[in-house]
Fold this protein.
Amino acid sequence: MNLKSDVQRAMPAAFFRALTCATVFLTTAYAFAQSPYHIRYKALGNLVLNVEMDPDSQVAGRVRAGTKGIKLHWCEPDIPLDAWNKATDVDARHTVLAGRWCQVEIGNIVGNVRAEMLSPE
């Protein structure tokens, strides 16, 4: 019996088990810690997308109420991940969005909107 060759054969299996466990752990952690920037939103009303985070700035585009698939790029002030994850339903998450300006992308239009005009899908 060659102990060295037995250990070498066991290493790939042990490595694979460890890698599988790590993948499951990270996937589970991600599922519970979902970022507000990795989900899609819908427009609660007709949106005017401004070039700047200012309602008086130039208009970049317009979107109808009910439009879905809106991507959030970033918000000012930023959305705290802990507050976002504590908000477990759509209404609570809408409350977390309130008071922020966010840069969004809808199709080929990029602009800034008041976050309270958005709701997670």
